[in-house]
Every structure is written in C-alpha cells, then in structure tokens.
Amino acid sequence: MNCIESYQKWLNVPDLPAYLKDELLSMDDKTKEDAFYTNLEFGTAGMRGYIGAGTNRINIYVVRQATEGLAKLVESKGETAKKAGVAIAYDSRHFSPEFAFESAQVLAAHGIKSYVFESLRPTPELSFAVRHLGAFAGIMVTASHNPAPFNGYKVYGSDGGQMLPADADALTDYIRAIDNPFAVALADLEEAKSTGLIEVIGETLDSAYLEEVKSVNINQDLIDQYGRDMKIVYTPLHGTGEMLARRALAQAGFESVQVVEAQAKPAPDFSTVASPNPESQAAFA
To answer: Both 27 and 83 in a single domain?
Structure first.
C-alpha cells in the first residue's frame, strides 16, 4: 500500500476522532507523504515520533497496535505472565494520559492485568514499579528530552530495564504482524477498573519508591553533616521530576533546595525551552 492509499484508508475510518480527521484534511502533499510513507518503527527501546495522524506518527492507533503486540507476547508466556501484568506510567506530554489508558484497555481486552499511575510519574519510578509489583513488563509513555511535538512508547522487561533482545525481537514481530490497527479491541475502561483488570496506583507506590531511594543513599553521614546548608538549584524542565524530586531530597536531609519556579509545573509545550534536554546547556539558558 502506497502513502496515498494509506492516507485514504485513514480518511475513511468511520469512527476516526475529529481531531485526527481535521488534521488529515489539512495536510498538503508533502505532509501526507511524510506521515504515511512508512510505519513508525518499534526498536529495542520502543518507538518515538511526531504526534499526529498517520502510520509514521504516534497516535492512539499506533499505540493500540504496539500494545496489541505486547499483549500477544504476554499471552505467549502463559497465564503467570498474564496475571503478573504490566505497569504503565506516563509523562507531561500531549496525549500521554490518553495513550497510557488506551494501552491498559488493549491489555484488558486480552484479560491481562495492568497497573496505571493516577497521574504523571518519572521514568525511574515506572522501572521500580515493575519490580515492586512483580509485573511481567512496563510501558512508559514518554519522548524523554525531545521537543514538544514528539511523544513515545517504551517497553521494559520484568527487571525494570530495557527488554532483553529475544523478547524485544518477538515483540517487534508481533507488532508487524498486525495489519489493521483500527480493528484492535479495547475493553471498557470503567468495567475493567471495576473488575480489577485495570488498577489505578499512586501514593502507595510513591512511598515505596522513596523508601527505596532513601535506602541506597551514598555517604549519608556526609549528608547529615553538610546537607542542611548545601545549596541546590533544581529544575524539572516542565517534566515529571517535580512529582518526587523535592521529597527525595528532603528525606535525605537536603533543606536548601531552590526550584526554578518558571519550569516547575508540568507543561506539554515546554514553554521556556526549545527541548527539555538536561544534557544541553541551552536548556538552562
């Protein structure tokens, strides 16, 4: 199927959300080609792309397709893996909450348990949650340090780290075998919550995570001696860090923490920086 045929297929989807249809209708030829000339590829660490309509964009259908592939992988591992389930977290980007709960609904349609954070959380906490809950896998909806028009979908293994190559390759094969993302089944969200297939998590996991962070502090004796007066400037760059960073620093004994208020609140457009990359000096200008 060429890009024009693929474009027409999307345009004719009966229940396509209005915001996606409007975007399709506004596309010029160059944009159509870029949005449909290929499929957004799922690699070892997941997938990342521009948010929008098309096979080469990240949207609810591409997320459903990826999660359907993950569901097939979980099913291939048996009932124990299905019951262990998948932990899901998301960041402050556009559509991150929607993509997270869409993923949970796809998993629920397969009878696979998921644990979804009630609001945005940092990636390290998702990694911890996978291990703490004994989950088979984890999904993190994030595009990390990329500019605001991007979002992404990362999958983690049962150890909370990057999925091992054999499972990652199998997952990629399952995703590629799905030729109609519009046909991926979704469980009803509220029904799945009521039956326990989708469990919303939050503060209990936060507390457990912070306790784990505290337990691995290095040189706590030096922190006890100097931490109270040590001046720290911290910025979450409009991301998820503000959720827990100040609490983690305070419990360790750092009391003089200055947060950059202009960048403290989560904001999907990252209004004060071109790209929220802490490795780039421009992000702190």
So the answer is: no
| Distance, CA of 150 to CA of 152 (rounded, Å) | 7
Catalytic residue among 92, 96, 103, 144: 144
The reply to whether 70 falls in a domain is: yes
**Considering the chain, what percentage of its residues have pLDDT values greater than 90?**
91
Q: How far apart are CA 274 and CA 270, in angstroms?
A: 7
Q: How many domains does the chain have?
A: 3
Q: Which range (34-38, 139-143, 239-243) has the least confidence?
A: 239-243
What's the CA gap between 182 and 15, in Å, rounded?
9
Answer yes or no: is 106 within a domain: yes
119 is catalytic: no
C-alpha to C-alpha distances, 200 to 59, 78, 204, 209, 274, nearest whole angstrom: 22, 24, 11, 16, 33
Instruction: Examine residue 172 and state whether it is found in any structural domain, yes or no.
Output: yes
Q: Which residues contact 205 (CB under 8 A, 6 or more apart)?
A: 117, 125, 128, 129, 132, 133
* 145 domain-assigned: yes
Q: What is the mean pLDDT of the chain?
A: 95
Q: Give me the domain span that covers residue 245.
A: 217-284
Are residues 5 and 104 both part of a single domain? Answer: no
Q: pTM, whole model, 2 decimals?
A: 0.95
My answer on whether 77 and 197 are in the same domain is yes
pLDDT tens digits along 62-98: 999 999 999 999 999 999 999 999 999 999 999 999 9
